[in-house]
Amino acid sequence: MESLFDAAARDATPEPLAVRMRPRTLDEVIGQRHLLGPGTPLRRLVESEAPMSLFLWGPPGTGKTTLAYVVSNVTKRRFVEVSAVSAGVKDVRAAIEAARRELGMTGRQTVLFVDEVHRFNKAQQDALLPAVENRWVTFIGATTENPFFSVISPLLSRSLLLTLESLEDADIAAVVDRAAADPRGLAGGITLHPEARDQLVRLAGGDARRSLTYLEAAALLAEDITVEVVEKAVDKAAVRYDRQGDQHYDVISAFIKSMRGSDADAAVHYLARMVAAGEDPRFIARRIVIFASEDVGMADPSCLQVAVAAAQAVEFIGFPEGQINLTQAVIHCALAPKSNAVVKAIGAAMDDVRRGAIGHVPGHLRDAHYAGAKKLGHGAGYKYPHDFDHGVVKQDYAPEELRDRRYYEPTTHGAEAPVAERWAKIRTFLRGA
Question: Residue limits of the AAA+ ATPase domain (predicted)?
């Protein structure tokens, strides 16, 4: 049972430093200059009395929640926050109904802030439409994913989309300095060494909230904050990596190209960066499975088996242990002989199909199992390969128009070398020189 002392201590617990240091006006917001300058749409909307609908799209820690709070604070509107992670349609409708009552009884408007709005399904997003259309609330949705793919068109078309950018190192440094000195923050009660400050900036990876979390953790350990104190406070380094932004594409591109280039060390490095940054392990596993056929293919058919097994292992045992299975698959694929003959084969065949080079299925290959098929000549003259030596018999398989087309051109790399030799013999036997 909780004691009175415990209850008092709990109630006396201050808010996190990142919450205490949340800006109260647009002028206090650090970074996002493209959104906050004089005459910008956000400035004009804040200065007006009319309800609005906004989507704030940007990486974590760039100020999406902060801007929503500032809009509410500056315009003197109620601030109601709904998390798309835990809320359902019922919660959304309840928040909207409460806002309507408040507007009708007092005339006071409400800012309805939906964090991670991309997690809402279509029905949940549809529930927001009446409030947006009728301007019962000032709706602000925050998302780290491209809203053009994650938000329904009717809702997006009725809203202003503002894109937030990752904070620069100078911005993060300003955030840290302000928190160290401001009465709402640490009020000058610590000594922050320049090297430690630089370390905080580096570890933040463009995320202001993360920098304040690390600073607060360091301040709990010592008043004299050195690099060593910061390293003790931060249990693992944060990687400058945005799962939805350019870094996401840069790192996964380097990951694939390192495996393709047979550099296992580099591939494992990029794997570690993605894992440390919280990348979805299923996404990583899917990329390895694709690579196994796209870049290794028949040069080492076991790569696909290893990649699929790693993907299944990640689903079965989860993380952190699953990273070992992914690492094994990455090393196997990186060191395997390479061949892109498989992807070139389907690419060439698809090109022919798209340009209309299809032709008719030879009659002897057509389905002869239904009534009346024999009357049409389907299946007539088909030779069953297992009835012949070596399981191969000379007959036409491709449509007449495509008999000379060559799609699969194997390399002589790894296990594909004997495949190439066998395929050359079979192709010559079936089609001639």
Answer: 50-166
**DSSP state at residue 184:** T
Whether 290 contacts 310, CB under 8 Å: no
Grouping H, G, I as helix, E, B as strand and the rest as coil, residue 367 is coil
Note whether 419 and 357 are same-domain residues: yes
The stretch 323-347 carries a mean pLDDT of: 93
> What pLDDT does residue 397 have?
81
Q: How far apart are the first and last CA of the chain?
A: 88
Of 129, 163, 197, the domain-final residue: 163
Domain containing residue 200: CATH number: 1.10.8.60
Distance CA 428, CA 399 (A): 17
Identify how many contiguous H helices and E strands the chain contains and give both numbers.
21, 7
Predicted confidence at residue 248, as pLDDT, reads 67
Domain ends where: 300, 335, 370?
A: 335
pLDDT the model gives residue 247: 64
Give 198-239 pLDDT, tens digit per residue: 888 888 878 888 899 999 999 998 999 998 888 888 754 444
Q: Residue 54's beta-bridge partner residues?
A: 140, 160
Same domain, 426 and 318: no
289 SS3 class = helix
Higher pLDDT among residues 39 and 278, named by residue? 39
Domain count, the chain: 4
Asked if 63 contacts 35 with a C-beta cutoff of 8 angstroms, the reply is: no
On the question of pLDDT at 5 being above 60, the answer is: no
Read off the tokens for 385: 């390969």
Give yes or no: residues 106 and 211 share one domain. no
Question: Is the pLDDT higher at 42 or at 345?
Answer: 345
One domain, residues 70 and 150: yes
Nearest C-alpha neighbor of 115 from the set 44, 60, 165, 78? 60
Segment 106-128 mean pLDDT: 90
- CB of 122 within 8 A of CB of 92? no
